[in-house]
Amino acid sequence: MDLGFYNSYLEVDMGIIARSFDRVKQHIEPHLGIIPVIKGNAYGIGTEKIAEFLLPRCPDMMACAQVLEADSIRRSGTDCEILILGGIPAHALSKAVELGLQVPVFNPEGALALSNAAKKLGKRAKAHIKIETGLGRIGAKPGEELKKLIDTLSALDNVDTDGVFTHFATATVVQSEYTLQQLEIFKQAMAQIRSAGISPIFVHCRNTGAASWLREDESTHIRAATLLFGYPGMDDGSNLLKLGKEPLSWRAFVTNVTTLHKGESCGYGRAFVADRPTKVAIIDVGYGDGLFRPLVTQHGPILVGDKRARYLCCSMDQAFIDVTDIPVEIGDEVTMFGYSRGGAPLELSELELTAGHTMTYLQSLLTPRVKRIYINEEDI
Fold this sequence. Notes:
The protein is of the alpha/beta class and 380 residues long. The protein folds into two domains: 14-229, Alanine racemase (TIM Barrel), CATH 3.20.20.10; 248-346, Beta Barrel (Lyase, Ornithine Decarboxylase, Chain A, domain 1). The chain has helices spanning 14-27, 39-43, 47-54, 67-75, 93-98, 108-121, 144-155, 177-195, 208-213, 293-297, 348-355, 359-364; strands at residues 8-13, 33-36, 61-64, 81-84, 102-105, 125-130, 159-165, 202-204, 221-224, 248-260, 265-266, 272-273, 278-283, 301-304, 307-314, 319-322, 333-339, 345-346, 370-375. It has a six-stranded antiparallel beta barrel. The protein has a four-stranded parallel β-sheet with strand order 5-6-7-8. Strands 2-9 form a two-stranded parallel sheet. A hairpin with a 4-residue loop joins strand 15 and strand 16 (319-322). The longest helix is centred in the middle third of the chain and has 19 residues, at 177-195. It is elongated and about 75 Å long. The relative contact order is 0.15.
């Protein structure tokens, strides 16, 4: 394993990811395609690597959040359709059209702006109607709002309406009543769209949570993210698809070991003051690498070798660990999440309970200062 000059590395088990994807594919209805969401550097895993892995498995479409991310996906050699999930600023529409992206439209102004950007480039544009069903972000509500959007799109001769989608707010709760209400609103919107003579190629509403439990007959595809990578993502911790171990392990190295006597301190502002002799290991990783600082200030867990220890404090570039009762030497490996070399677990599903934030959030914090290492690629 060549780490070059990086202080830490994220080990990504591609074999686990491949098995997770296959499990999802087996679970959903046979006629459905999968639109993978690989935004936020594929949730910290690496956009281009994941796009390369997914292309033969999801040849229809991928999705991301920004045109910048779509450009990265294109540079990986991915030639399938790419959907932008959120609103696109007017200045970025030309690049979206140039890349041939599926652009979300949810009001007449946005549809007209997309058409104008396409005209300037002498190209046709691709539109995905976003329906507002209860998340409260972007989207047209069924009824008069949607009618105005449909009328505008119908009058544009250089915009193809290829898809319709919505997004659920509480689908990480099994049999969520609110999700079922949102689904009914989406069905109303689809009836209105079809009655206007629009026959979209792509129809999708099931996100990662909903893909685990919801069944409906509107969609052509599900739209999943971390579920494909081995993370169930349900609020109650349930693993409905019986996915296996998590695929990611973030590790670093001890760069110093010191002892604090009673009354001595470490960290800016004397963040930790010892009330007894305390052996401290320092690692050259901090919140500048993606370490979630509130987890550290709560003295959350970290693995030193195979042993559990606790954080004391951290800065942008370094963190302090209480190793008073743990044998440790400079150069020893620590694991911020995942599995130690010896197989000891400290999974993100546990840390999200300690941190009070989702595993998606925690893994997406990892910055380019963390080396990505991909293993078991022969298993895919």
